[in-house]
Fold this sequence. Notes:
Blueprint: E1 4-6, H1 16-27, E2 31-38, H2 43-50, E3 58-66, H3 71-74, E4 77-84, E5 87-95, H4 105-108, E6 113-120, E7 123-133, H5 139-144, H6 156-165, E8 176-188, E9 197-203, E10 209-217, H7 222-235, H8 247-256
Parallel strand pairs: 2-6
Antiparallel strand pairs: 1-7, 2-10, 3-4, 3-8, 4-5, 5-7, 6-7, 8-9, 9-10
Amino acid sequence: MSATKIRPKRITELGDEALQEVLSLSSGSDSVELKLTVPETEHRSAIAALGLDPLDAQIRLVSFFDTPDLQLNQRGLIVRARRVQGREDDTVVKLRPVVPSDLPHHLRTSPGMFVELDAMPGGYVCSASMKARLSGDTEVKKVTRGKRSPRKLFSKAQRAFYAEHAPEGLEIDDLTQLGPIFVLKAKSSPSGFPLKMVTELWLYPDGSRILELSTKCPPNEMFQVAAEARAYLTGIGIDLSGQQQTKTKSALEQFARHVPAAG
């Protein structure tokens, strides 16, 4: 069974085969995150419709680690370190796509492991993330300033997960830092929608932006919440038919283009 499909249909309108796959993936997941990216021309109107105040947003600086030709990304492996305003730094080693039932028991039950199904208009993918919080809010800064080895940011379990899926011989300290990218994140409880809505604005080096709206729910509530989210967003005038963009892939590709040539 493939763990990812791209289809021009909403998750509430899947055919029988795709529906069975989504149900199988979600049943083995810890959570479902429903996502939507808003066309850039409609960012201002979407923020106004949601009643968001930019001053309430949390600042984040997200750094990725990969090779200049993005070998990890080609394998579905993402290595990320993040600074978060008012909170400890954190890191993640993520693999996608995955089928939850195929994950080894020791990995699936690891304290830092989190399996999530991401769904957006036209596609869905399941990922396995080994997460860790760092001891303070300066650890990632030390790495970005060359004062600490990148591998020191990652736990033993994260390094083992990385080693299992990375190209042979490619150590974390061999990777190139890509970023950081500046991100604004705001949480809200919109009137007329039963769950929290998360809004993220990613600001890219070339001046482009991605505005993503998302909400999380338990796997058994996925279809109900998807229908409610669609009705709510449509009701406040947000376009659900725009081409969807991926935040991480866009960031990796832009930063990789500016890595100095070796030698």
